[in-house]
Amino acid sequence: MKFEEKHLAQLAAVVETGSVTNAAVRLGLSQPAISRTMSALEKRVGEPLFKPGRRPLEPTLIGSQLAQHGQVILEAARKASETVAGFRAGSRGTVRIAGVPFFMDAFISRMIGEFQTIEPEIRVEQSYGNLEDLEKGIASNQLDLAICPLGLVEAARGFQFTPILAARNVVACRSSHPLLRRTKLGTNDLVDYPWIAPLPGSPLLADLHALLLTIGLPEIGIRYSGGSLLSVFNYLEETDALTILPHSVVFAHRKDRRITVLPVEIPQPPRSLGILRSAAESRPPSADKLANHIFRQFDALRTLIERHQTSLVWGPKLGPQ
């Protein structure tokens, strides 16, 4: 015997509300329509669905059992409606976000955690990538948001780029590094110590090469390469190695790691870190909600980063010797 799901759902509504009239109001149907459905169900089952003379309506054993199946249908419909409403409001759904590794680990993963305490129904899938990979991910609809650096040129057609922080690189070292005890630093001082190379393909690696070219350094001694942000910090804390890092990343861990800025002025990249998105209007509302959360966090954070930057006593800008 086959039943129509909508008829079972109507039966469940009648049992739950105790009357045909109330069930009609809840389901947005007419009272006669609900009554016809109940009569048709009773004929199909061959048994009464409600005990006679009871108000509010009280189901028979078979009526109660069928209503339980209908309740599952009603609950599924309710959850589906909530999902659609939540998606449109940006409070439900999945956001796929990726970005340059060091920046994601230093800032964005923490901001995602803060965001999900506010929006617990939004699932976030995070990954890593450099600009070329991130652009491909957004263009192919595999990503919703990308955290990446972009230079003076505008974003490619079909993309929307919103800056969140001006890029500034520093030479980083452990807080007990011997060079910090010197009152004057020069180019040759940077050659006397081993270096950590940034991840292959990262903007920092290109910045390191640009630094060497600009200040006329010979080839430096790369002692360690390819590590995550955590491994770079661990290595720096145990050695006298130097590396190039975004100032914001060092700032983010200034209190929980024994890492600091070597106060030498180096050439700065003409770019900003920001959020790259599709320019199409069909983006998930939840993705825009996460992006707005990141914007607000950096509005507050930017002042602190700039204040820390100005508090450092910088030496003369390095150049060819």
UniProtKB/TrEMBL annotation:
Residues 1-60 form the HTH lysR-type domain. PROSITE patterns: HTH_LYSR (PS50931). It comes from the Bacteria. One of its GO terms (molecular function) is DNA-binding transcription factor activity. The keyword Nucleotidyltransferase does not apply. SUPFAM superfamilies: Periplasmic binding protein-like II, Winged helix' DNA-binding domain. GO terms for cellular component: cytosol. Gene3D superfamilies: Periplasmic binding protein-like II, Winged helix-like DNA-binding domain superfamily/Winged helix DNA-binding domain. InterPro entries: HTH-type_LysR_regulators, LysR_HTH_N, LysR_subst-bd, WH-like_DNA-bd_sf, WH_DNA-bd_sf. Keywords: DNA-binding, Transcription, Transcription regulation. The keyword Metal-binding does not apply. Belongs to the LysR transcriptional regulatory family. This is LysR family transcriptional regulator. The lineage of its organism: Bacteria, Pseudomonadati, Pseudomonadota, Alphaproteobacteria, Rhodobacterales.
